[in-house]
Write a structure and sequence with these properties.
The chain is mainly β. It has one helix at 21-42; strands at residues 56-59, 65-71, 79-86, 99-107, 110-118, 123-132, 135-141, 148-156. It is globular, with a radius of gyration of 26 Å.
Amino acid sequence: MCVPLASPLRPSLALRGPCPPSARRSRRRHACFAGLLVMLLQMPSAWATTPDDAKGLWLSADGGAVIDFKPCPDKATALCGRIVWDKDAGKPTDTCGIQIAQLDKFENDAWRDGWVYDPRDKKKYKGALRIKNGDLYIRAFIGTEILGQTEQMRRVTELPATPVCKS
């Protein structure tokens, strides 16, 4: 075991001798890494999300729909998602106006405790929604969150010009 030279507080260390240069460098690297880790843990997280980060317009992964996430009309503390643009607007397969999510609670950087509706299979699932690196990830699952599917969406600032949803 390598120990540093004796200090006024621990004179008994002088009996073991100084550390070789390679051990001192290694120890400095570990100390530097530990200091950096402590500093990062104490900083407020720049990656932490807030409940408002999910609000706004989001384009689905396939580019076929835009969903508007905002507070629910009947429950202002919950987040609801409604399709406000559909590439099939005006056709029989039109999904305009369909509510696809209601998530009641924001906890641990995610909206959860609600449901997600998949208009493709016309089923409701348990749901969770997270924002990571500026993208929205909505997860639909049965039972536990690990047993589900996630769809990634990207934020858009406006709806595509055509086709236009009537509802």
